[in-house]
Amino acid sequence: MTQDTAIGGPYQRFPETRHSAIRGLLDDDANLRRQSYDIVIAAYWKPVYKYLRLRWKQSNEQAKDLTQAFFTAAMETDTLTRYDPARATFRTYLRTCLDSFLLNAWKHETRLKRIAQPDIAWPAQPPESIEEIFHREWVRSLFEMALADIRSRDLPFRVFEAYDLSDKDSRPSYNELAILFGITPATVTNYLAAMRRDLRKSVLAKLRELTATDREFRSEARALLGIEPS
């Protein structure tokens, strides 16, 4: 196969469906529960860390330590298994659990240091709402994971990265991309279309893993991609 061959076959290997890691947290199989925790932690590590930095004004090291402590405590106390899909999204539930964890940590620090300023202080309300901050970081993390899934496409991904992931003001034309990568403008078009399709499939697969119900999955897909998944 030459570099000028249009995308097909091996560039589109994504499972049509994935099991929900949120439901997997309740599974009787210990291995599946562990895998589900790994998926949830991988998806929410950066959002929790960034939320601690932005909302709770923690330093880099404090935020890392607190993120680790939160997920460790959540696993040890089965906090995440008490999630009820009928009451809120898992994202909202996890953020609420995180705030509760931090408030308890703050009270503990206050008891230990009755005079000294506690490490965890109640922050000023930021311009954005609490939910907006956490949602934005969750979306960023979701797309980072989806991009990691398609990064192995080598040349097609590099074309996609140079065009779709570049600053709009410095974005090269299709002809410039063709010259840069030694392919035709038609192949540039094919690569970009295929990468966008694969990115969308990867985002949907991640959403399927990180939502508890079909209704929530479809709602998130409409909000993020503007589509009604099949």
What this model shows, in words?
It is a single chain. This protein is an all-alpha fold. It has one domain (16-225). It has helices spanning 21-24, 30-54, 60-76, 90-112, 130-150, 155-164, 174-181, 185-209, 214-225. Helix 2 packs across helix 5. It is globular. The protein starts with 20 loop residues before the first helix and ends in a 5-residue tail after the last helix.
Give the topology.
Blueprint: H1 21-24, H2 30-54, H3 60-76, H4 90-112, H5 130-150, H6 155-164, H7 174-181, H8 185-209, H9 214-225
Helix pairs in contact: 2-3, 2-5, 5-8, 6-8, 7-8, 8-9
Structure summary:
By secondary structure, the chain is mainly α. It contains nine helices and no strands.
Describe the structure using short key phrases.
9 helices, single chain, 230 residues, mainly alpha, disordered N terminus
The number of helical segments is: 9
**Count of DSSP E strands?**
0
Oligomeric state of shown chains: single chain
Order of helices and strands: HHHHHHHHH
Structural class: mainly alpha
